[in-house]
Amino acid sequence: MSYELYYWDGIQGRGEFVRLALEDAGADYVDVTREPGRGTGEMLKMMESGAEAHIPFAPPFLRDGDQIVSHVANILSYLGPRLGLAAKDEALRWFANGLQLTITDFIAEVHDTHHPIATSKYYEDQKAEAKDRAFEFVANRMPKFLGYFERVLDQNPEGGGHAVGNAATYVDLSLFQVIEGLRYAFPKAMRHYEPQYPELLKLHTAVKVRPNVAAYLASPRRLAFNENGIFRRYPELDVEP
Predict the structure, then answer these.
(1) How much of the chain, in percent, has pLDDT values that exceed 90?
(2) Helix (H, G, I), strand (E, B), or coil: what is residue 205?
(3) Fold of the CATH domain 90-210
(4) Cβ neighbours of residue 24 under 8 Å, at least 6 residues apart?
(5) What is the DSSP annotation of 150-198?
């Protein structure tokens, strides 16, 4: 059976971290809300079910037969061994999960640059607060997270330009997506910071040319970044570091 990925249609968002793993592995999967005759209504029906025992709180979530797995890091921890995108060593798998959870924290802070007050309010209703939050993010939080991941790559005893072990894992794919998203949302800041993170840039380049990833990026399945997702380009938030 195909994996079934449930996430909002029209945006990359958090679902893209899961898509990249599925695409890189050449996995058979269905992006449910993009399927004719299925759509967002089917996803909402599962979330709002009064009978399903294992209901997810929010997308993305994955269905594998009778198994439902929610939250990006949890999904990738589940998929990693099945897709050949996880280390065989148990200690390294736990480390990878910790890295993915740190990426989750980072993405939450990216989101909060344009929605610092409430997700229920439009960006236009919190622009002043968003500018203050974005300044703090660009000046302090962005280099803190990127510097950490740079050190992880540099200090990996296995080498080879991977975050975990000596082969590609889902963490490498997720770090690629982080760089892609930051370049879209904060191009001025990234031009300033990128020379400080050569290992991250090498990883980004290596992932981008992986055959299945390259084919996916060139396909209509890869949606463009837009101002409805997590990474949003508002020039007034792309402040000088």
Answers:
(1) 94
(2) helix
(3) Glutathione S-transferase Yfyf (Class Pi); Chain A, domain 2 (1.20.1050)
(4) 83, 85, 168, 173, 210, 212, 213, 216
(5) HHHHHT-TT-TT-SSTTS--HHHHHHHHHHHHHHHH-HHHHHHHGGG-H
Q: How far apart are CA 9 and CA 1, in angstroms?
A: 22
Q: CA-CA distances (angstroms) from residue 35 to 29, 151, 218?
A: 11, 41, 20
Domain locations along the chain: 90-210
Split at pLDDT 50, 70, 90, the class of 47 is very high
Which pTM value belongs to this model? 0.96
Residue whose token pair is 């981008």 = 208
Residue in the block written with tokens 């148990």: 90
Asked whether residue 102 carries a pLDDT value surpassing 90, the answer given is yes
**pLDDT score for 119:** 94
Q: How far apart are the first and last CA of the chain?
A: 48
**Tokens found for residue 133:** 């939050």
Closest CA to 213 of 20, 18, 11, 14: 20
Task: Please answer whether residues 74 and 96 qualify as being in contact, where contact means their C-beta atoms are separated by less than 8 angstroms.
Answer: no
Over residues 36-52, mean pLDDT: 91
Amino acid sitting at position 194: E
User: H-helix or E-strand containing 63?
Assistant: strand 61-64
Cα–Cα distance for residue pair 57/187, rounded to 1 Å: 33
Token pair in block for residue 55: 């209901």
Place of tokens 């975990």: 164
Residue 89: pLDDT band (50, 70, 90) is very high
Do the Cβ atoms of 2 and 66 come closer than 8 Å?
A: no
